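[job 4417] fold queue: 2 targets
>>> target A
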Amino acid sequence: MPRIKFFFILSRNAPFLWFLARVFVGLVYAYAGFSKLMEPVENFRGAITQFEVLPMPIIPMVAHVLPWVELIVGIFLILGYAPRLSAAGLAVLSGMFLVVLGTSKFVVGSFGLTCGCFGERGIQLSFTQIFLLDIFDFCLAWGIYRRKDHLWSLGGLLGRAR
């Protein structure tokens, strides 16, 4: 009988928990983008280069565009503007980051000096912590994408849940 009560409480509070997940993932990406934008782009370009995964000609473009994408899509997810599309975009980014981290480990043999995730002066996490955070963000973003209803979302207020 206690097990049934647990699932009832979880299902009743699920919209609020998914709201918290939406805010958490959005904050992680908005902070990551913002912290990189507050530093010279060369810092992030150097962090990307050390992974030795991306071709050199596209690294400057990635270094300029990626922080803006993280910031804007992170804010969209926090606000709940196009929450499914925003969550899908951040799930793709998390998946790509996991592939880059994993590939770099096998190509270079190590993870390098810094991941560049939150800039040089931002939060400093170990590569294991970053890898686990990306897995967690991917799972949450995928779960948010799969939900049709989003509590306290701007998209819901505007009549557009997509």
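>>> target B
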Amino acid sequence: MYEIINGLHAWNRWFITIVLLVVLYKSFTGWKKKSIFEKADNTMSLVLMILCDLQLLGGLILYIWLSPQTQAAFNDFGAAMKNSASRFWAVEHIFGMVIAWVLIHIGRSQSKKAATDELKHKKLFIFTVIAFLIIMATIPWPGTAANRALLPF
């Protein structure tokens, strides 16, 4: 079960990255060009939010029940905090990703409530770019202590 959920989690990050970049591009250009906030803009932010919800669900299943890294960290949390790879999986990754998930939700909500199209694009861009930076900072990149492959195969 671990391999299946972890594989889905690893693949979904690429879908999130692609949609996130599209949302960033569309919201930034919409904000700067003062474009209409179209149905496609709303749909892309919805797709991003759904993908992030699925990612959080898979991540929580891994974190709480399936991941050997977090299970080992929970067995000796003091020792895990002294090891950068264990600390990354037990605290840093989940903390950063949950914050990013919250920002994605707030950005979508704020963009829907904004009074003007320009403000919708601006709010969506600001919250999404902050989430993007946090996501990029808390991905287990190759060569880091957490050291995961870029592609899940």
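[job 4417] complete. Note on B: Residues 2-137 form one domain.
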